[in-house]
Amino acid sequence: MLKAAPNLDDLAIDFDCLKILIDDEPTCDLLQQRIIRLEVRYWPDNESELLQRFTSVFRCLRYLCLMLKNANISNESVSTILTQSNIKQLTMLIIGGQVSDEINKNLRRWVIDHTHLTAEDSFTADDINHFFILWK
Q1: N or C end: fewer C-beta atoms under 10 angstroms in the chain?
Q2: Rounded-to-integer distance, Cα 12 and Cα 18, Å
Q3: Which pTM value belongs to this model?
Q4: Domain count within the chain
Q5: pLDDT tens digit string along 16-67?
Q6: Which letter does DSSP use for residue 116 in this model?
């Protein structure tokens, strides 16, 4: 499919399928060159090591949406995703799931405390309909 669609730059895929594609070197090379928008469905909370690998593969990524298996996102999961998703290169990060009240009280402050972003950086964070959204 990637060879047949040379203009493909947007990919929505289940976690298990993406995990298989990443292990195929020719496919991985194509993904690396083309994909700038990635939505991964059924992302398990305990796959932080794979997130680092995915972000190293998708070096051109500008938009990342992780739809978590678990509807309630732990503070640790959000923190891990933020630190390992290379948010420097992203213009938008979406995490599908409900964040805790502790995080939701002041999302912008929480993001500053848990990432390289500072108060001077231009970004906003919000929880909209159980989606944690970070725009830059």
Answers
A1: N
A2: 9
A3: 0.89
A4: 1
A5: 999 898 889 888 888 888 999 999 999 887 667 788 888 788 888 999 999 9
A6: S
- Residue holding tokens 């919000």? 126
Tens-place pLDDT, residues 62-119: 999 999 888 777 788 888 888 888 788 899 999 998 888 888 888 899 999 988 899 9
Domain extent at residue 72: 10-135
Kindly state the tokens that stand for 132.
Answer: 């944690």
Q: For residue 62, what are its two tokens? A: 């500008």
- Between CA 91 and CA 9 the distance in angstroms is 15
Distance of alpha carbon 37 from alpha carbon 43, whole angstroms: 16
Q: Which residues contact 31 (CB under 8 A, 6 or more apart)?
A: 2, 11, 21, 22, 57, 58
Task: Calculate Rg over the CA atoms of the chain.
Answer: 15
**Integer Cα distance of 5 and 65 in angstroms:** 22
